[in-house]
Amino acid sequence: MMKECLQFLIEPAKKIKIRLKESRRRVKLEKKEPLVESQLFIMELARELNRVVQRSSILSHVWTSEDVWPPAVCRDFIVEWAAVLEKRVKPRLIQSVNQYEKPEKRDWRGHLLCMLEAGGEGDMGPHKRVIMDWTREIRSRPQNTVWPGEAVLMVLDDLELQWKRGRLQNLLPAMELLILAVMNADSPLKEDVTKQWLVRKQRSQKTDAARYIPHNVWNWICDAAEEVKLDSDSANPDLIISSDKKRMRCGLEHRDVPRCQWRFNGWWCSAGQEGFTSGRRYWEVEVGQRDWRLGVAKASAVRQGYRSLTTDSGYLTLRLERGLDLKALTVPATPLTRIPLPRKVGVYLDYEQGQLSFYDVEKRSHLYTFNDTFTEKLFPVFGTVEVVNDLVIRPADVRQPCLCTGPCLWT
Questions:
Q1: Which residues form the B30.2/SPRY domain (predicted)?
Q2: pTM
């Protein structure tokens, strides 16, 4: 009887053990799934960059396949950077690919390209050829001869730390930064590589683009802090503006104010006192949890009535509706559904670059960027429907505390 009972317990245990072995075997096979061709291509590019750029060991995570990107991200990266390199570097490449060694005697790049163009990603061949032509050019540089600069190294260290902590999905931003460093190695613009990188990253509105802003890049943005104040002469009559012009909320009574064309009389909005026609400007706003609007309005934008405050009507704004729907008011609207709702929003205007960017100040992460060509004065715009909590413009000299858990690692 006892033997039968033990057998009753042993048989299910054996089945569970078999299932566990099968599960482990399946996981092991999935981990050994062969990398797609574009991933292999990027791994070799990372290896070559690591060879010529000093202190670029961060790329070892890429070329050892520790950091593997999704196929779609690989393809987008190759297409985007092929376009950049073709425009900026290809004029210097006089020799064509056919003038190099015969295919059977070429280095790994030639063999890889032949394989890629014959394989399942043949449509990527032209883009890969452009990048490989550029790679041939940098191969002429001896090992460790490109000094990226202290600013770039600080950004790389920051990105690697955030990647290890899980805040970055991949090290694509590091690859892009180092490509720019090599492209500008002999250029007077060498010291501006991190600024070029920021502008380029913010032109990308892909949902999987890296949102974290490295420490010294964030400080550079904040250095453009502007003391922005509300213009009570432009505020909707239903809004209550504080005496220091830094706070506003909806009142319970309609104010009796003079009518004028620059006053909002429909939407509960107010403009800033000063408009901007040049330079970099940055301001931070503590927003409500229910409904708010932030951005800029062109001088020619109509403020009266209930016309949609979108890019078509001269407004570049983000809006939170009903405490749920955060969106950029493009045409059509761009939902920002995968982004946690911010409590403090940073607004950064780079007039010459034609960019208006928004950040979650507490997480130091990028929310959205409008890309345009600015030709007229731009006024900050603020909107709220809150009747209890104020929308607050933070003082220009107040900085959000560093994200480091102990002493700051980047000072």
A1: 208-400
A2: 0.81
Residue 142 belongs to domain spanning = 37-202
The conformational region for residue 319 under phi > 0 = left, psi -120 to 50 = alpha, else beta, is beta
Q: Which residue(s) pair with 282 in the sheet?
A: 225, 348
pLDDT tens for 66-104 read: 999 999 899 999 999 999 998 876 665 544 444 444 444
316 and 167: one domain? no
- Asked whether 349 and 356 are in contact (CB, 8 A), the reply is yes
Distant-in-sequence, close-in-space partners of 68: CB < 8 Å, separation ≥ 6: 35, 39
Q: How many Cβ atoms from other residues are within 10 Å of residue 131's Cβ?
A: 22
**CATH code (residue 353):** 2.60.120.920
Which of 202, 236, 253 lies at the terminal end of a domain, its last residue?
202
Handedness of CA 53, 54, 56, 62 (dihedral sign): positive
Q: Greatest CA separation found in the chain? A: 98
**pLDDT, tens digit (0-9, with 9 covering 90-100), for 383-411:** 999 988 999 999 998 876 666 554 454 44
Q: Which residue has the higher pLDDT, 102 or 361?
A: 361
Half-sphere exposure of 115 (CA within 13 A, CB side): 13
How far apart, in whole angstroms, are the C-alpha atoms of residue 264 and residue 381?
11
Mean pLDDT for the stretch of residues 269-288: 97
**pLDDT confidence band for 131 (50 / 70 / 90):** very high
Q: Report which of 42, 46, 45, 48 is spatially closest to residue 72, judged by C-alpha positions.
A: 42
Strand 355-360 to 344-350 pairing: antiparallel
Q: Does pLDDT of 12 surpass 70?
A: no
For residue 192, what is the DSSP state?
G
SS3 346: strand
Residue 398 lies in a domain: no
**Do 158 and 121 fall into the same domain?**
yes
